């Protein structure tokens, strides 16, 4: 968690993510890179280069690109100014944390993926908003895509955090053999927050609770966890159970490993991670199995 990338569209949610990234970087001694992705007019509208239409039956002077170029130059200037303002704010919020900024001209998802590779990112912290169908389509779709595709862990933030002090971590799983592949990622998170209690959570649908607890204890032993609790909750869906339990124990962080392949445990399905990441109250950290 040393090289942290924060995509921002200057919304409230992306600012919450920026604040958390600064607190996390201060805790780990990391660096924050602010990213804004500018969509070129053609990508944003499909036909911006002819915006304005003909003048007196003719084309605008330099209509092949002149207006677009002026628009992009002005937009870049405004963007850089807003990024500079955030960097100045960081000096007050987290003095001593190095903050850089960068701009990608691309479609949003592609721009974020390019920046991850370009800057050697090992953690993406981004805002999420998923409270309604329209909001989910226009806002959370990009977050969900990054969760699916990013080669590094992704931390999603939906609400302002007065302090990002991680004392309670919820780790949902069914603790079968497939879950062993998630141990290394969980150990890295726990190493960053060694004082935190890890809640090993199973969302049940009528399974034997005694057998589940035995699996949880075995997993804790394999993961070399010393400060942990086991929990079982019954819910109609896995994501609903995770959200309910996180609220019940006042979780500071939910940690969800995922795997894009089908046929694996439902706890490792990317769709579960996407739903929890955009709906559960606390920040949610997702990462892919090795």
From TrEMBL:
Pfam families: Usp. Residues 1-158, 167-287 form the UspA domain. It comes from the Bacteria. InterPro entries: Rossmann-like_a/b/a_fold, Universal_stress_UspA, UspA. Belongs to the universal stress protein A family. This is Universal stress protein UspA.
């Amino acid at each position: 968690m040393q090289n942290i990338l924060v995509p921002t569209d200057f919304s409230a949610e992306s600012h919450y993510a920026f604040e958390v990234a600064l607190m996390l970087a201060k805790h780990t001694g990391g660096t924050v890179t602010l990213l804004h992705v500018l969509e070129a007019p053609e990508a944003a509208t499909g036909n911006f280069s002819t915006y304005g239409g003909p003048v007196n039956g003719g084309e605008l002077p330099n209509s092949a690109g002149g207006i677009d170029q002026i628009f992009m130059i002005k937009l870049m200037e405004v963007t850089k100014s807003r990024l500079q303002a955030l960097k100045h704010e960081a000096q007050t919020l987290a003095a001593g944390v190095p903050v850089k900024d960068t701009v990608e001209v691309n479609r949003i998802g592609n721009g974020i993926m390019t920046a991850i590779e370009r800057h050697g990112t090992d953690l993406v912290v981004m805002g999420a908003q998923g409270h309604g169908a329209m909001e989910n389509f226009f806002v959370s779709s990009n977050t969900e895509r990054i969760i699916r595709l990013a080669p590094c862990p992704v931390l999603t933030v939906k609400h302002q955090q007065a302090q990002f002090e991680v004392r309670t971590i919820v780790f949902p799983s069914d603790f079968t053999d497939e879950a062993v592949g998630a141990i290394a990622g969980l150990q890295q998170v726990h190493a960053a927050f060694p004082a935190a209690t890890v809640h090993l959570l199973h969302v049940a649908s009528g399974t034997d609770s005694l057998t589940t607890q035995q699996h949880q204890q075995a997993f804790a032993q394999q993961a070399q966890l010393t400060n942990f609790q086991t929990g079982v909750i019954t819910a109609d869906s896995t994501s609903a159970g995770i959200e309910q339990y996180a609220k019940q124990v006042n979780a500071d962080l939910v940690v969800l490993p995922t795997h894009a392949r089908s046929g694996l445990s439902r706890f490792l399905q990317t769709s579960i991670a996407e739903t929890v990441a955009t709906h559960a109250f606390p920040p949610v950290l997702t990462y892919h199995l090795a």
